[in-house]
Amino acid sequence: MIKHIIFDVDKTIYPDSCGFGDEMDRRISEYTANFIGKPLSEVDILRKQSVKDYGTTLRWLQLEHGLTDTDHYLDFVHPVDVEKYLPNKNEVKNIFHKIKVPISILSNGPMENVDRILHFYEVKDLFNPIIDIKMNQLKGKPYTEVYERILKIIGLPIEEVLLVDDVEDYLIPFHDMGGNVLLVNEHNRPTKMNFNQIRNILELPPEYLT
Ligand SMILES: [Mg+2]
Fold it and tell me: For residue 162, what are the domain limits?
């Protein structure tokens, strides 16, 4: 029985296809190219590997390339004009209001980005706690201590908690710890595991709704 649902934010609450995530990726690549002094074509390949090895590009830049001004990075990569990209305002707002168990946020982005998106959809008040990358000392998903930290705040056994995320690699540790997972896979990309999946947050199974 699911008694709490933890949501990712980027490409989970809004769909991958709306362009917001692409704009963020473009900015991350641009920042990285400037920071490490390599052409964009090379950076895209390096970044893919970095996410596999370090969880996030940010952590890779910190550990391997000496990035220290992490606020500068986080400010640069997150677009401020969210209303230009985010779709389905009323539908998304309604579905979150219909969820019948307590809900929370676990994002690998900064609170500023989380805030803008949750404010746009008018759902911020529904989530408790809201955990961003800075509260995890910039060491976010998929590190297991991140999941342990939020579970401690929620105060429920992991078997009663569902994690919803668009990144399968962020769901695997939670699943291995005994948790329930739901993958948001808009483009039906091939997966490693056989997790339950939906294409869009609006397809959240009715069993979680009132
Ligand atoms: Mg995401």
Answer: 4-15+87-208
Q: Ligand 1: distance of its center to the CA of 172 in Å?
A: 14
Distance 66 CA to ligand 1 centre (A): 25
User: Could you give the CA distance from residue 126 to residue 92 in angstroms, rounded to a whole number?
Assistant: 13
Q: 36: CA distance to ligand 1 center in Å?
A: 25
pLDDT in tens, the chain (210 residues): 999 999 999 999 999 999 999 999 999 999 999 999 999 999 999 999 999 999 999 999 999 999 999 999 999 999 999 999 999 999 999 999 999 999 999 999 999 999 999 999 999 999 999 999 999 999 999 999 999 999 999 999 999 999 999 999 999 999 999 999 999 999 999 999 999 999 999 999 999 999
If you measure from the C-alpha of residue 15 to the centroid of ligand 1, how many angstroms do you get, rounded to a whole number? 10
Whichever domain contains 124, its CATH number is 3.40.50.1000
User: For residue 105, how far is its CA from the centre of ligand 1 (angstroms)?
Assistant: 11
